[in-house]
Amino acid sequence: MISVNGLRKRFGATTALDGMTFTVRPGQVTGFVGPNGAGKSTTMRIVLGLDAADAGEALVGGRPYRTLSDPLRHLGSLLDAAALQPGRTARNHLLWLAHSQGLGARRVDEVLTQAGLSAAARRRAGGFSLGMRQRLGIAAALLGDPPALMLDEPFNGMDPEGIIWMRRFLRALAAEGRAVLVSSHLMSELQDTADHVVVAGRGRVIADASVAELLAAASDGRITLRSSSAGAAAVLTEAGASVTPGTDGTLTVSGLPAETVVAVLNRHQVPFSEVTAYRASLEDAYLELTRDAVDYRAEEVR
Ligand SMILES: Nc1ncnc2c1ncn2[C@@H]1O[C@H](COP(=O)(O)OP(=O)(O)OP(=O)(O)O)[C@@H](O)[C@H]1O
Hints:
32% helix; AAA+_ATPase; ATP-binding; 26% strand; four-stranded antiparallel β-sheet; alpha/beta; Alpha-Beta Plaits; binds adenosine-5'-triphosphate; 302 residues; Rossmann fold; transport; ATP-binding cassette domain-containing protein; ABC_transporter-like_CS
């Protein structure tokens, strides 16, 4: 288990962390998302003892990371997949890490297989694509067979096949009972992967909930329907609903139960089809939550 309690951190005039607090539970993939500058990397660096917090604490299995005598057996981490010696082969890179922790070559070969890198084990890591470097980073994180994993943007640079592999792999690691924290810019990457999501903004937690809860809140009892009649939006608005036209000819309706929507359209003899409960995506939920916490946003195109 990883717990982050009231972390505060300033860099000069910038407040990077402003009371960041959350827990990463065993047996779950916890997504850690938020706009640029939300404080995700700073939080992870503090968990690993690479930065010192001004206040608060971060614990791994109940202890500060710096006090662990064999840390790779407690927490595996991937912060920067590009950080490796380009001249070393993948296997030698892992052997070097393994020896520093009293782990043998057999474990190195196991994690190379797990990460799908056996065939590339004797190639120089400097020639690896970003996706392969991510796999090598994951292999390194797994060396000590730790109960907790913390991965910063592991989907970065992965091709579609790699993304599917990574999703399944993270799920399997959580199913083995590990606590898995995964940061990402793209909420969509975490769909079908994360059980739980911590949304950060401006150095603190904006939402900390299960994926099911987030989706239910963002769906908010809305329904969608399809109608070719221009009158549909008008009669529903008049009946008290709020209506948003979609780009695909659908209307999203909120503020009225489905039965009332159907009754209103029938009463006004407005043709319609496909009345369904609106299902928000994780991306929708995220955009709604972070609307006020984004530092940099492109001007809307008019
Ligand atoms: N070493 C540093 N010196 C000065 N400012 C820093 C430093 N590290 C982080 N910051 C600032 O702290 C804030 C939080 O940054 P952090 O990298 O933790 O956010 P993030 O959520 O990981 O962002 P991103 O998604 O862009 O990686 C930002 O405003 C950033 O500019």
